[in-house]
Structure formats: C-alpha cells, structure tokens
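Section 4.2 – Deliverable D4.2 (structural model, holo form)

The reporting period included a commitment to supply a predicted holo structure for the target in complex with zinc ion. Inputs used:
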Amino acid sequence: MHTHSAFSADGISPLPRMLEKAREKGIFYYGVSEHFDYDYLVNGIPFYGGEAATYTDPDAYFSCARKLAAEYAGKTQVLVGGEFGYTDCPKAWQMYRDLEEKYCPDFVVNSVHTDGKYDFSDEEGRPFRRPDGGLRPKKEAYGDYFALVRRSLDAPYAYDIVGHMTYCTRYAPYADKRAVWADFRAEIDGILCGIIARHKILEVNSSSYGAPSDFLPDADILRRYYELGGRAVSYASDAHDVSRVADKREKVVSALKRMGFSYLTVPCRGAHIRVDI
Ligand SMILES: [Zn+2]
Ligand SMILES: [Zn+2]
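Output (structure tokens):
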C-alpha cells in the first residue's frame, strides 16, 4: 500500500515496470503513493540531498496511473494514491486539499520526513544536533519527532495511513537508535490511541535501511497497538524500484500473525478492505 515509481523524484523504475513486477509476484492489491512533498516546498527544505526540486507531476501521474489501473483491472487492483509529507504549515495543508479535490486519490499515506527545517536524512544530521553542533539527547530529538507525528494525526486533509512511524531512527546518529515503547510510553501511546480513535491505519514499513529493526515501527510498538485495540495495519514495501516490490512481506506478515493480527487493511476511497493473513 505504499510504493513509488519514476514519477517521484527519488523513484527509479517506471510505473509500468513496477506493476509488471507486482503482477509477476501475484499481488492483488497494489498501492502506488508517489511523493507529494509540499512540506519541502513551503518550508524551503533542500529536496532529496539538495538537488533541484522536481515534484511529482500530478497531471502526468494520475492520468498514466489511472490508465494502467484500468488495464490491470481483474488481475491486480491498482490503487492510485499519494504520500503527503506532513508539516505544521497551513499553506501545505491547502495544497494537499487542492490536490485531493482535483485528483481524488484512492488513498493517502500521511508521513513525517522532516522536523520542519531539515529532512531526518540530512547529511549533517541537523535534526539531531544543537545549533553549536552538539548531539541532542535522544529523548529530546525523538520526543520532538513523536510530537510532530502526533500533530500529523490532526492534518486537515483526508488521509488513510500513518506512514513509517519511527522513520527518524533510520538516520539517527545514536549508538542505540531504537525508539522503544518503554522509553516513550506517553508519546507512543498518544499516537497509537490517536490512530485508533480516528479510524486510521498504522503502516508497517519494510524499508528499513539504516533502521535498528526489520520494519518500522518495531514489534514492541506494534504489540502495544494491538494491546490498545488497534487492528488496522497496512503492509508497505515503500519500494522505489522493482527489486523491492513486496520486499519482506512474508516476514512482516509472520510477525504480525505472531502478535495476534489476522488481517491487513487496504484503504480505497474511504472504505477499508480486510485482507486475511
Ligand atoms: Zn516516506
Ligand atoms: Zn514512501
């Protein structure tokens, strides 16, 4: 339920190749969620390593993806969506609302990639540093990240999935990068209860390069979500090229089953489809 193609600035494989791969792998529901990172735009954040900003062209993407979805109908159900980069800025919210009104995405992944000033993947690690360059305590830097994710739940535009929670851990400069529930109980419970109360979906993202676990968020947070009554989870490879389509899906599914989850949730135009696992 969360993949990219060459329509995204950091995507590699063309969309038709991604869909061929999905079909080859026997995937029935395949969600495309190109980047619409207007948070970078409104906050003036250097885009993906400082390259000249190129944003997904919504006209080109939605028309091509809808056409391909029609061609795949009956074989693979292609859901045409987007990944929105959350920021506190109302200008970005309006841009996302306009996009939704014009293109009616089948689903939206709402994700936090930046601290409002810098991407968490920033080469100098600035979200984790003080102005004098000293390292911020993990409790403080992760605390800010969780507070932002908590605020993203109240985004005033439609979204379905809370993307890659604990994303900041992938790039954190700490010896122990984990964001465990025991250390951030109030922050994490606030987010998990917020997801449940709003009938949103917690994503399990297998794109974990640099992360201290095989998927994000880690098992202890997913177990806590289950304990609190959360049942809506989605699987995301977050693939940007064909080699990662459905990557670690079986690993994620087995882990979820061990925790008690019995289905994945696929959002489509506001409805939640349950896929048994
Ligand atoms: Zn993302
Ligand atoms: Zn993504």
